[in-house]
Design a protein that fits this description.
Layout: E1 11-15, H1 22-35, E2 40-44, H2 51-60, H3 68-91, E3 95-99, H4 102-111, H5 116-120, E4 131-136, H6 139-144, H7 156-169, E5 175-178, H8 183-202
Parallel strand pairs: 1-3, 1-4, 2-3, 4-5
Helix pairs in contact: 1-8, 2-3, 3-4, 4-7
The structure holds thymidine-5'-phosphate.
The site of thymidine-5'-phosphate has 10 residues, from helix 4.
GO molecular function, one term: dTMP kinase activity
Pathway: Pyrimidine metabolism; dTTP biosynthesis
Keywords: ATP-binding, Kinase, Nucleotide biosynthesis, Nucleotide-binding, Transferase
Length: 212
């Protein structure tokens, strides 16, 4: 078996603009890891199934209006309400593949003009990912891909600002993957990087907290 009782799972986050392929790649990664016998689960933020998540969903669908700070805190609360479950699963040896996390929270809110440090503050103390995979795609290219839906942030001009904010957040520990390649090639690259990190976590790399 790939996991033994002492080894923890890895916290792996996929980030990128809307329509860059995160959601498909996340679920493919889960299937791949399961196929290798790893204990693995898929999470996504926002998690629209909770009470907080339903408020977020209504906002994204333009069914409600909220102050920029208020919605920011709701996105953050939506991560906090999953924090202890995530820690328990990681410690039990389950790897979590997470479709969006705090970086989306900070990038999207700061793209609206909310102060960057203010945006980070409520995220302090959440579990830090072991790996951030950034699916890199120009906003124009992402916009062409099957088009945007009707959700609040799915506009080219706004996505350009989000891309700039991601640039400010990204550090050398992020793995940038060119998301314009054929899906299978993107998938292969992600698989290799993820396997390396899962093994490092099994060897005892400690869990850490945001922002570090
Ligand atoms: P989704 O399309 O991946 O479900 O994400 C919904 C939108 O919410 C997407 O445009 C990104 C945005 N978002 C934030 O603004 N803050 C956050 O913390 C998260 C997780 C997503």
């Amino acid at each position: 078996r790939a996991c033994n009782i002492e080894s923890r799972g890895a916290l792996i986050v996929l980030e990128g603009l809307d329509r860059c392929g995160k959601t498909s790649q996340s679920s493919r990664l889960v299937s791949y890891m399961e196929g290798l016998g790893h204990s693995v689960e898929l999470l996504r933020f926002p998690d629209r199934t909770t009470n907080v998540g339903q408020m977020i969903s209504a906002y994204l669908l333009n069914q409600s209006e909220l102050d920029d700070h208020t919605i920011h805190l709701l996105f953050s609360a939506n991560r906090w309400e999953k924090r202890s479950m995530m820690e328990t699963k990681l410690k039990a040896g389950t790897t979590l593949i997470v479709d969006r996390y705090s970086y989306s929270g900070v990038a999207f809110s700061s793209a609206k003009g909310v102060d960057l440090e203010w945006c980070k503050a409520p995220e302090i103390g959440l579990l830090a990912p072991d790996l951030v995979l950034y699916l890199d795609m120009r906003p124009e290219k992402a916009a062409e891909r099957g088009g945007y839906g009707d959700e609040r942030y799915e506009h080219l001009e706004f996505q350009k600002k989000v891309a700039q904010c991601y640039q400010i957040l990204h550090d050398p520990s992020w793995k940038m993957v060119d998301a314009c390649q054929p899906m299978e090639d993107v998938q292969k690259q992600l698989q290799e990087i993820v396997l390396d990190h899962v093994l490092a976590c099994q060897k005892g790399k400690p869990l850490s907290l945001l922002w570090s």
